[in-house]
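Something for you to look into today, if you have time. What I am after is a single protein written out in full by you. I want to see for myself how the chain folds. Could you add the entry underneath, on a fresh line?
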Amino acid sequence: MAALDGPAGPFSSRTEGGDPGSTWWPRRVSVAPMLDWTDRFYRFFARQISRRAWLYTEMVTTGALIHGDAARFLRFDACEHPLALQLGGSEPADLARCAKLAAEWGYDEINLNVGCPSERVQSGAFGACLMAEPVLVADCLKAMQDVVDVPVTVKHRIGIDRVEDYAFLADFVDQVHRRSGCTVFIVHARNAILKGLSPKENREIPPLRYDYVHRLKQAFPDLDIHINGGFRGWADIQAQWDHVDGVMVGREAYHNPWMLADADRLGWGDARPAPTRRQVAEAMAAFCAAEVAQGVPLKAMTRHILGLYQGLPGARQWRRMLSDAMALRENDAGLILAASDAVERRLSR
């Protein structure tokens, strides 16, 4: 399924310069990897709104790729580029094997998860707990870099548990960079509390320390430093560009996806008009119809687009129609157009 023609959809070729080792544009704005949320259906949707924002998969564990159905986890639509695969793991050989597989599938970046605080992830000895082992993290990154030509990056926290001093963060980045050569660090500007807090609480309770990430960029001016955590609007995002190389947006880009309509213009100076919500709804209806024909339940896709009309009159009706269990049981992608029609009629009054 191709992306929208005209104002929406990504560029068709990699013609613009980007950061070192990449044939795409710099990661000024990216959408964070979010488990159960940033699957290929959401990413196709996001790409209909922004041509340029970097997209990240959900975290995929090395075990899932090596012992499971790799195609299920790695499949994506060509319009999703630029696209990064986030891997979870701590065995350099396994990560190298999975990175090579991802590069063969055509991913533009491989990202290592060193930020997830869930106890389930910790039981596999990866995620945020790896911040205590910078040498191992470097070994993992180096193993992946040795087998792929695309950028290998790392996403991590500013600290773990009660280790809250900036020196810990700076030492982690310094060791990982010197030992692996990794140049792109995506920093969630909160500590990860490894015991006692749920993943949701870990996104809300530890205080945000943007100043730590700013200091990191000052200390390592030649590295690509990106900031993540708590961004709600463009004023906050634009303010960060004075201090770091890029901003990664998480849940706001999911619940209020239309914020991405401004990403190309504000992030890269792309003057082409953004799509309309109706155009995006039409693209999603066509995409979902094709997926339904392949056996995908409609509800697996409509759940990701409930925020399309967020903040507008009729948004509640849009969400209600696309969440109606009886209607979804019909697996008719025309439901998306019917819901859009209802909202657009209200907006045109």
